[in-house]
Structures are given as structure tokens and as C-alpha cells.
Amino acid sequence: MLNHSRQQGIASFPFANVVALSDGPRGNGSGVPYMFLTPLDFTSKDLKEDARATLMVTLAQGPYCTHKEMEPIDPRCARTILSGKVQAIDHKSPEYVVAREAIYGRHPSLKYMPRDHEFYFAKLKIFFIVVLDTFGGAKFVSVKDYYNPPVTKPSENYDEYMNYPMPYVNQF
């Protein structure tokens, strides 16, 4: 995740850090980027003063691009960039259970983080989306379209998903 640093010596500089991230169970994600943060970390301290942040997820994070012999900068090694504001999730809200299941479902060892580190769940309230998945430039996606993707069918090849536009389903 990238945010504006508030750390002495680099205040206002862009600052990147690794965060635990999940949008739900594998194959049934909601698109909402949930995070697991601690107030002891640089990122959480920075976000307390300026909640703006950007996340990038890429196929280079898994085996897909390596298997296809693609470098991470190859546009076909798709990436999605999400910008917005990070919001802590109230432990009394129904969304807290959703966030907890999303994070622990993908990162089960995080259940055992030290309690005195006061970890909490948060989400990125998205307002800007860019996708780069082939040559020819990035695509800007509306938040509405992001949360309402076309119907997909799982392929037999790894965990990839192939989009079949509804009018053409019977032609394949």
C-alpha cells in the first residue's frame, strides 16, 4: 500500500508498505479491499493523519506470470490499482465479521498476532480504479462497474477466470 508519510525526515513523501489484504474467500471475493493493520506500524500512524492510500494487486503476486514466462512489468501480467481512503471498521458493525472472515480466510496465521499490538480491520473506500492487462494502455474503471463485473465462469486452468459476455455464451 502507498500513502503519504508522516514520518520525520520523509514527511509528505510517498511511502509504501506491505499490508495483509483480502476481498473475501478465494473465488467469491466482494472487491472490497479489507486490511489488517496495527497502530504500531508506520502505515497506520500515517493513515491516522491522512487516510488517502493506493493499493496495487498484480498477477505477479502468484505463479501466473512466472508460469507464462512474463516479467512483472509486462502489461499482460495484469495489475489493478485502487485509490481511496482507508477506514477502520467498527468492531460492533456487521461488516466487522465480513472483514474478519475475509482476512482470516486468506491469512489464517494472523488470528494469532499478539493482542497487545491492537490489530484492527480496515477497508479501502475506493474512488479511483485503473487496470492494466494488455498492451495499448491502462483502462479507467468506474467504481460502479468495478462492483458490478460481468458474469464469469471459472476456467479449468489454475484459478483464472474467463469473461464470457452474456450474448455470446452459446457461441463457445
TrEMBL record:
<feature type="domain" description="CREG-like beta-barrel">
    <location>
        <begin position="6"/>
        <end position="148"/>
    </location>
</feature>
<dbReference type="GO" id="GO:0005615">
    <property type="term" value="C:extracellular space"/>
</dbReference>
<dbReference type="InterPro" id="IPR055343">
    <property type="entry name" value="CREG_beta-barrel"/>
</dbReference>
<dbReference type="Pfam" id="PF13883">
    <property type="entry name" value="CREG_beta-barrel"/>
</dbReference>
<protein>
    <recommendedName>
        <fullName>CREG-like beta-barrel domain-containing protein</fullName>
    </recommendedName>
</protein>
